[in-house]
Amino acid sequence: MSNQPRTLAGARVLVGVGGGIAAYKTAHLVRGLVGEGAEVRVVPTPASLEFVGAATWEALSHHRVLTSVFEDVDEVAHVRHGQEADLVVVAPATADLLARLRIGRADDMLTASALVTRAPLVLAPAMHTEMWEHPSTRENVAVLRERGTTVLDPAVGRLTGPDSGPGRLPEPEAILDAARAALSAPRDARGGVHRDLLGRELLITAGGTREDLDPVRFLANHSSGRQGWALAHAALVRGARVRLAAANVQLETPPGARRSDVGSAAELAELVAAELGEVDALVMAAAVADFTAAGRSDAKIKKDEDDPDSVPALALRRTRDILRHSVESRGQSARPAIVGFAAETGGEGTAALDLARAKARRKGADLLVFNDVSGGVFGAADNEVRILDRAGEEVSRAAGSKTLVAHAVLDALVARLPQVP
Ligand code: CTP
């Protein structure tokens, strides 16, 4: 492997394409990777060329494609591409390809490269439901996952024929997120992703709550859910089971996450209270409204046509502080570990960091991830945080993509998870 870039910009990504109809969607994935500055080599299986031809991959990746181990033999291409890759992504990973990867075949350029590489391997399966559910495939997936390969769960929905079920290729955006998460994850001794969250279950809240004022209006905030999503993807590649409580998030569900959608702060509070006792960690990345309407109007609030200066009085009341309430209901138990977030701007002579330190001590969560939002981070791809413990002391810092921040938060969390009995 090269000098291990942790983001897609400048990373050498080998994209394997299996022989399935979903190969056409991989064109969007390649575009996305190239758009982020990755140097992409597409390695299609011979069968996949029946679906999408080499010209498409060469045009999108700006590189010649290699399919057989007998091409470019003078350059020892069948080992070179695998050795040079920082990340290998296979989409679609057919049932046949999963079987060949599991037993270590090297009968085409893709499987040979996958056998050589020491980089993280992300497989995005697509096949008919019967094939995905077949004991052979179940076993192949289990073995590959045990070895540290990221095998995404296929999406559920309409398949090529009239049937529907699990087996659709995850959307390119979700594969791209998983690729980012794998690339920046901590590594095991062989260079694969260190699965330090295996056997753990996390509840991650994401997005921003909406408080209805009347049937058409609500109070909301700018949270996009991207940081919570990055945490979910990062936790999944590190082996965790992930429950995502999504408050008004318009993003593709991370493959393998169990998603519940909520609207208001009260709905989120109810969900967290119901699931808190079932998880190893709660990560409160959602931006939860602190105030909600004291009484939601059943009818649309009308303006007074006769008085152009009149405005309705909005009566608000406080919502439950879910983070603090979770810490209280956990009591003396060490489970679950609890992580809060604090977005601060500072003001009136108090620095943002001091407000965050005070908040860390007040809320009592095991970790508080502080970011200074004076410059505005909502919806942006990058973030800069300091991770504080419950005494307000700095544990670590992270800057860069939300994926990098997510891994830094998980690093701090792993150290605080109660021992598995
Ligand atoms: N939070 C929560 N329930 C609320 C409000 C916030 O659980 N009703 C959580 C957020 O998910 C976040 C943390 O508390 O993890 C900090 O949220 P923030 O809004 O920054 O802090 P507040 O306590 O609301 O303080 P303030 O808005 O006054 O800064």
Task: List key phrases describing it.
421 residues; alpha/beta; Rossmann fold; 2 domains; 13 helices; 23% strand; EC 4.1.1.36; CoaB-like_sf
Short description:
31% of the residues lie in helices and 23% in strands. The chain is an alpha/beta fold and 421 residues long.
Structural notes for this entry:
- By secondary structure, this protein is an alpha/beta fold.
- It folds into two domains: 12-184, Flavin prenyltransferase-like (Rossmann fold); 201-303 and 312-414, Rossmann fold (3-Layer(aba) Sandwich).
- The chain is built from 13 helices and 19 strands.
- It has helices spanning 23-35, 54-61, 77-84, 95-103, 109-116, 129-133, 135-146, 172-183, 226-237, 265-275, 322-330, 352-363, 402-414; strands at 12-17, 39-44, 87-93, 121-125, 150-151, 155-158, 164-168, 201-207, 211-212, 218-219, 241-247, 258-262, 281-284, 291-293, 316-318, 337-344, 367-372, 382-389, 394-401.
- It has an eight-stranded mixed sheet with strand order 12-11-8-13-16-17-18-19, sandwiched between helices.
- A hairpin with a 5-residue loop joins strand 6 and strand 7 (164-168).
- Helix 1 (23-35) crosses helix 8, helix 4 (95-103) crosses helix 7 and helix 9 crosses helix 13 (402-414).
- The longest helix has 13 residues, at 23-35.
- The radius of gyration is 24 Å and the shape is globular.
- It starts with 11 loop residues before the first strand and ends in a 7-residue tail after the last helix.
- The model has no long low-confidence stretch (mean pLDDT 94).
- Bound molecules: cytidine-5'-triphosphate.
- Cytidine-5'-triphosphate binds next to helix 11 and strand 16.
- Cytidine-5'-triphosphate is lined by residues 265, 284, 286, 288, 290, 319, 321-323, 340-343.
